[in-house]
Every structure is written in C-alpha cells, then in structure tokens.
Amino acid sequence: MAKGVFFAIDWGEKRIGLAVGQALTNSARGLAVLPAKKGVPDWALVKHWLSKYNPEGVVLGLPLLLDGKAQPLTERVRLFADVFLSQIDLPLYWVEEQLSSSEASERCNNPAMLDAEAAAVILETWLAMPERQRDASRHIQTEQPKLQEDS
C-alpha cells in the first residue's frame, strides 16, 4: 500500500463527518460535516470532497459495542458501505470507531465540526494499524443494495 492520502467517514443518520489524512505522517484532520437524510448524503458533495483530495482509499468507522459485538447501527453502516461502493470507485476500509466521538469531543473546540473530528480520529486509528491489518480491513461489496431515504 502506498504512503498516500486517505479519507475517512464518520457515518450518521443526520450528519456525515469527513476527514483527510496521510499515511506517511499517520495524521488526519477534519474537513467537513455533510447533512444526511436517514444516513444518505448528497453524493455530489461527497464526490466533490473526494475529487478535491484524490485519496487512495476511504476508511469508514464501524460502530460496535465495547465488547466488539454489533449494535443497532452496525447493519446500517454496512449497508451504507455497499451503497458507497456503488457510487464511488475507491477501495473502502473498516475500522472500529469505539469511543471516536469521545476523543473527538476532547480535541475539537467547534461543535459544528465534531463529526469531522470524529472522522479524523477514525482515520488516525486506521493509519496507526500495521499495514497488513489495514489491507485486511478492506470491504468487499457483494451486491448492489439501495439505501433508501424513506426507509
């Protein structure tokens, strides 16, 4: 895996945080918080941010319970990942996002950017993983699902 630029997403039903970072420095910064309707962003806005930074891949935070088990939002995020891959032609990777919001709130002085800072925490967590583990976290899409705004 090259030492390039990566993106991260902190998915939410109402807001989606975006961050960008670099593998060479293992650092990331929050970029933007996009509105979402039942977890569906404006895909044109997502594509705009991706085209601005041209990342090698995208890291998506996976919400799990502290014991590592799935929680109610886990399946919605997995569905979002499949829809993302149907919209965006980039590798997508997973990292557990446990406590990312707590860490983000300690680092961020601007409440409007909290979700973007959480995405930065997610990306830094993934970048700190050994390269072999990062490669193994790649999401493979199995079908073409639809994430409905009114579901």
Summarize the structure.
The chain is α/β, with parallel strands linked by helices.
Structural notes for this entry:
The protein has 151 residues and is α/β, with parallel strands linked by helices. It has a single domain (5-136), classed as Nucleotidyltransferase, domain 5. Helices cover 36% and strands 25% of the residues. The chain is built from 5 helices and 6 strands, in the order ββββαβαβααα. It has helices at residues 43-53, 72-87, 100-107, 114-127, 131-136; strands at residues 5-10, 15-22, 27-37, 40-41, 57-62, 92-96. A 6-stranded mixed sheet has the order 4-3-2-1-5-6, with helices on both faces. A hairpin with a 4-residue loop joins β1 and β2 (15-22). α3 (100-107) packs across α4 (114-127). The radius of gyration is 14 Å and the shape is globular.
